[in-house]
């Protein structure tokens, strides 16, 4: 009975790391993909609004996230590419790509928060609308979309941190390709049929008697 109770113990040891790897992988994929999508969506929305004085009246102006700063959208794309590249590399390469993913998220957060109070884009539009290079926007207000972009950056950052911490437990695409590309054992040639005419001629050329036993 003692021998029977000792059997399950070695099998249960790899279950922990394997389960942790699958859980962290799913969390990183979901967090990274969702974070990139949220950040890209937020940059296409209205971040700020105001007015410009034109011919004695107030002319409404709006600025999208892409007008304010292009950094969050660019870093979201970089982060998404890094999330995919994590599975194409191993060891030091995986750590480097994971770091890029985390830095992309942190940069997205910083750029979004800086853009939440920026008025440069609307000032430029006010100058164009009024024809006065020194004109600035009035009645400036901001929406919540910059903070939504920051949330997307936080999700990318979380995916990067998960990759840095648990990436060594994740599978790699290169391993799959290596197994698929491994040389296959050569098949042995089928034995020659002595009754075939071409085999008879080959035997005669070799000086053999094809009719011999």
From TrEMBL:
InterPro entries: Trp_biosyn_TM_oprn/chp (IPR019051), Trp_synth-assoc_CHP (IPR011746). Keywords: Membrane, Transmembrane, Transmembrane helix. Residues 182-192 have a biased composition (Low complexity). Residues 193-213 have a biased composition (Basic and acidic residues). Residues 1-21, 178-213 are annotated as: Disordered. The chain crosses the membrane at residues 25-43, 70-89, 96-116, 144-164. This is TIGR02234 family membrane protein. It comes from Streptomyces thermocarboxydus. The lineage of its organism: Bacteria, Bacillati, Actinomycetota, Actinomycetes, Kitasatosporales.
């Amino acid at each position: 009975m003692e021998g029977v109770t000792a059997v399950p113990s070695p099998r249960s040891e790899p279950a922990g790391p394997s389960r942790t790897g699958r859980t962290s992988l799913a969390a990183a994929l979901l967090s990274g993909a969702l974070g990139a999508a949220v950040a890209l969506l937020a940059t296409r929305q209205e971040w700020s609004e105001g007015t410009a004085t034109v011919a004695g009246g107030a002319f409404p102006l709006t600025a999208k996230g892409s007008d304010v700063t292009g950094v969050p959208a660019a870093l979201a794309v970089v982060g998404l590419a890094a999330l995919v590249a994590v599975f194409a590399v191993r060891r030091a390469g995986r750590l480097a790509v994971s770091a890029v993913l985390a830095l992309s998220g942190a940069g997205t957060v910083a750029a979004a928060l800086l853009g939440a109070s920026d008025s440069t884009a609307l000032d430029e539009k006010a100058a164009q609308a009024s024809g006065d290079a020194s004109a600035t926007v009035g009645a400036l207000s901001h929406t919540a979309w910059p903070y939504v972009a920051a949330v997307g950056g936080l999700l990318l950052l979380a995916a990067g941190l998960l990759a840095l911490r648990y990436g060594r437990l994740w599978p790699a695409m290169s391993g799959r390709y290596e197994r698929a590309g491994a040389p296959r054992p050569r098949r042995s040639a089928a034995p020659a049929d002595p009754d075939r005419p071409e085999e008879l001629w080959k035997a005669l050329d070799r000086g053999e008697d094809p009719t011999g036993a």
